[in-house]
Design goal:
- This protein is mostly helical and about 150 residues long.
- Helices cover about 75% and strands about 0% of the residues.
- The protein has six helices and no strands.
- α2 runs antiparallel to α3.
Length: about 150
Amino acid sequence: MKKYATLLLSSAILLSPITMTKMATADESVITERQSNFKQTGMAMRMMRGHIQAGDFEAISASADAIANWAKAMPDFFPQGTGPDDVSTRTAANQSIWDRWDEFTALANDNYEAAMALKVAASNEDSSAVMDAMQNLGRTCGACHSPFKD
């Protein structure tokens, strides 16, 4: 059942950017969709801890792939006009995202690379490498939170 839930969650994260390209006309729907993607990523990170303990490398790989897909699409969900001062929808996105765009996109790319490294470690069924890659992935998430999230 857990594997099914992970694969379902991974699919939702994977398909969200595709759905969003059709909805991206309204600033508030972009914000809602990016918030949903971040929540799904957080849930995937929490679920992976259990998968690591269970040695479920397939589920770890699927979650890592979904997180990588979100990281790659992430900058597209921060178009101009979707900052905290621009819309009525509550957003924790800090204005510094747009002020320091190159740094923000570089950190999103770091997150992508870390998720892909986790996927490789899971594909190799290397528990030690999975743990290291998971910790690195967590660090890349946190690296963006401090400067860019209120």
